[in-house]
Structures are given as C-alpha cells and as structure tokens.
Amino acid sequence: MAIANLSSIVNGIVMQSHDQFQQITHDIVWLNIILQNYSELYTVIRQLEFALLQMIHHSDRLLGAIQRVLQGKLPISLINNITLQGILRNLSLQLPEEYKLILGT
Questions:
Q1: Which residues, 6+ apart, have CB-to-CB distance to 88 below 8 Å?
Q2: Which of 30, 72, 74, 76 has its CA at a distance of 20 to 30 angstroms from the CA of residue 11?
Q3: What is the pLDDT of residue 105?
C-alpha cells in the first residue's frame, strides 16, 4: 500500500514535471518565433534607414545643383552626356577660327 501510494506521488510529480517541460518548450518555441519576427522587423527598419539616408544625400546634391543654377552656373550633374556633347559642339562652332577646345567634341 505504501509503495502504491509512493508510486502514485512519484507518478504525479513526473506528470507535473512533464507538463511544465511541455509548457517551457512551447514558450521557447513562441519566443523563438517572436525573436525571428523582431529580427525581420529590424532588417526592414535598417533598409528604411538606408533608403532615407540615400534620399537625404540625393536631396542635398539636388539642392546644391539648384543653388548653382540660381548663380548662373550649370552643374554637370544636371545634364546627360549627349546634351553636354551638343553644348560643346555648339560652343566650338561659335569660336573664332584660331581658337579650339582643348579636347575635341
């Protein structure tokens, strides 16, 4: 009788330990999923920060180019190669005969 009673107590403790182990395992899996989601969130936040820094850099360059235009200077960053080549060709055609550009068009 005492052995059966002791066995029943041990069985109860083992079952309770097993239930607690299952709960801890479930909590660890849930925590792992949450941490993975946070990791993905942090990755997206870092990508947004990088895109924002690029946008700020491009805005600064654009504002600098606009300021140069307002001063009457045409920044190279605002025109493409074909337009620049056309400007140089027109400029070279308007130079007197004895003058030439350092480099050909």
A1: 101, 105
A2: 30
A3: 52
